[in-house]
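Ligand: magnesium ion. Inputs:
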Amino acid sequence: MAARPAPYLEELNAQQRKAVETLDGPVLMLAGAGTGKTKALTTRIVHLLGTGRAQPNEILAVTFTNKAAREMKERVARMMKRDVEGMPWMGTFHSICVKLLRRHAELVGLKSNFTILDTDDQLRLLKQLVQAAGIDDKRWPARMLASIIDGWKNRAWTSENLPAAEASAYDGKAPALYAQYQTRLRELNAVDFGDLLLHVVGIFQKHDDVLAQYQRWFKYVLVDEYQDTNVAQYLWLRLLAGGHRNICCVGDDDQSIYGWRGAEVGNILRFEKDFPGAEVIRLEQNYRSTPHILKAASGVIQGNESRLGKELWTEAEEGEKVRLIGHWDGEEEARWIGEEIESMQRGTRGMRPYGLDEMAILVRASHQMRAFEDRFLTIGMPYRVIGGPRFYERLEIRDAMAYFRLVVSPEDDLAFERVVNTPKRGLGDKAQQKIQRMARDNFLPLHEGAQMLLDAKGLTGKGAGELQRFLDNLQRWQRLDASPDVNHVELAEMILDESGYTEMWQNDKTPEAPGRLENLKELVKALEQFENLQGFLEHVSLIMDNESEDAEQKVSIMTLHAAKGLEFPVVFLPGWEDGLFPSQRSMDESGIKGLEEERRLAYVGITRAEEVSTISFAGNRRVYGQWQSQMPSRFIDELPEDHVEVLTPPGLYGGGYGASGMRSSLEDTASEANVYNSPGWRRMQARGRQRPTSQPRESRNLVIDAEAVSTFAVGERVFHTKFGYGEILALEGEKLEIAFDKAGTKKVVSRFIVSAADADNIPF
Ligand code: ATP
Ligand code: MG
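Predicted complex:
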């Protein structure tokens, strides 16, 4: 009797159905973005349950994030039309491995209540070992060792099976330290993150009976985003599926974006070799995006040499072209996107109205979020940051702000506690307790208690000297903060440098460190819009207080990495500038491979959009108070013209920010700083949509840099970002003495000044 297929199968195309119904043996679904891989994978689970092939606890389903696992459970429940109890083995590699390791901890010499060390603990432990080995940890920081060991664990190398070629790492000392570290962890009944997988792989390799038990137990293995698995994860999967070979992996080589964390796109390409006879299913129909969006994305990814290559098509209506817009600077870009989101809520340019939940901003670097968060908080636009803390909640930002707080109000004991030993000043718990006691006994704030303790010789050794230096610095910064001659932006840089805080992250060799340094730069940049440190701190405390209710609809802000697998009707892709995206660091470190991974990120970004995808770049970004001119991203050049619409920046035509001034300043920038001389911009111009028609003004570089300085003269009218207009009284190297119209006579640093004639053109 031919029964009607289950309704969930009717929603699928023929290829997807094949992937769902081929229950026995290995299946690989290798297909581009939005072709319904995750949908097919989820349906496969429903089918396994629905046909009684497996019970919920017999399915091992690995997703990339916990969020994805939750969503998958919900989708299964919806399709099954009942709550799926259990599914205990649906989760990330790490969450699943924790469970497995708790069951078999004794096999690797641990107790089942082992602790999982966080990065701080891990570093402390490594540092002890490094010191005990008599290694100069300034030259060979413990963080570097941590990162080496982490890389080894990603490749499933234990200290016993480390390849000989690795022996020279860390001055030849890393292999021995690795072994000691593992011994120490075992003594502490602890594991680090990488161990979770490595221990389980080790158990499977050494204990056939345990492996056999799980091979029987997990009747079906399913893996989403397979292109981003690393070697350890790959081995783990191969072992588990080695018996019945009922493994279904889905992925897209064009979306492999975790090479920098040890992911091996080769895993997906090798699947057929590892599992001979595998059913390889290719999906080509895209159900997510409009043709313009798809073709724009394909155009970009074609720039990569090493790819399998696949064509996507869609039945969706043409829809909007990918929109491209250039802005004067990053703040302007944030402002425009804020306004565009508001108009899209109402329905604009003939498009339907969109809810805030339907819109997302995807950035390359997390420091880019700051401009959007500030802007959105100012205009009261609800937003959420996905996959990480909000900008002002990040560790390094809170540390830096604690320094600023302490300078502005020395009695801020919480801030004092936070930074007194960050970076390390040899003030351990004992020393800090002494400071606390002294302060409490004498009813003093901590900084005074600390001074009293030092005066009373209650603290000796290295810590005492460092503490005195810290307190002296603090006093000096306070004096500078009170002085009208000192620019608060410079002071902030000084504080971060002299305290050793910036250096702490410069010496840090973890993958997060460069991002943290960028965030610190971004923080300093944010200061420029305020009168002084205090004004800025007030701003932050106010906006942080402004968190909107959770139930409300919100715009999502996240990194491109965090956006993997997700989709939104409307996507904004800001900051497409060479160096930012593609990231300079990625290209410096990994050359052409790095560039190709960046290009895959661009592909991931564009293909998150269902209906409207907007790419933008800024001509200038301010870094540490310096204007830097930016070149539009090379990926912009790779966008196929037919699928792109160039939007006019508001300043160019009748926008609200001084149309004519903006136009001429853009031209100035174009002529001098080359911003719009890139092929991308020239092509945009050639498309003839918005070539400004004004006469080019006599050229003058508006990019405020060292060269601009030399052009100032005594008697010239100038504009300062903080004090407004004034006249130059005297020049003295970098310093200018200026009689300001409103703020009186001050000495200021030249890089915050432009000629008054040009000032009107800058959208401060
Ligand atoms: P990515 O590579 O970005 O992870 P994907 O291949 O996993 O994408 P899905 O997220 O599964 O794609 O699907 C993309 C969109 O297409 C989803 O909204 C999904 O519901 C829809 N979709 C998938 N298959 C079909 C189908 N056969 N009919 C209608 N819609 C579908
Ligand atoms: Mg997916």
